[in-house]
Amino acid sequence: MENQPYKIVADPSDPDSRVVVTEPGGRELHIHREDADPEHRFIAYRLAAGWFGNLPAGYQAD
Fold first, then answer.
1. What is the pLDDT of residues 14-53, one digit of tens each?
2. 50: part of which helix (H) or strand (E)?
């Protein structure tokens, strides 16, 4: 089985406040910006945090 990347896009129903993260297995998670956490144990929530610019101290966003 080939590894698939995570995919992240703005949620069409609320593009300013939600994202859709598709995991390598195909599961889609709709994550609100307030639930996005750069230190969460699940990668999808970390990716959402980066999307919204909520990065942990020491990281810089371009």
1. 998 999 999 999 999 999 999 999 999 999 999 999 999 8
2. helix 43-51
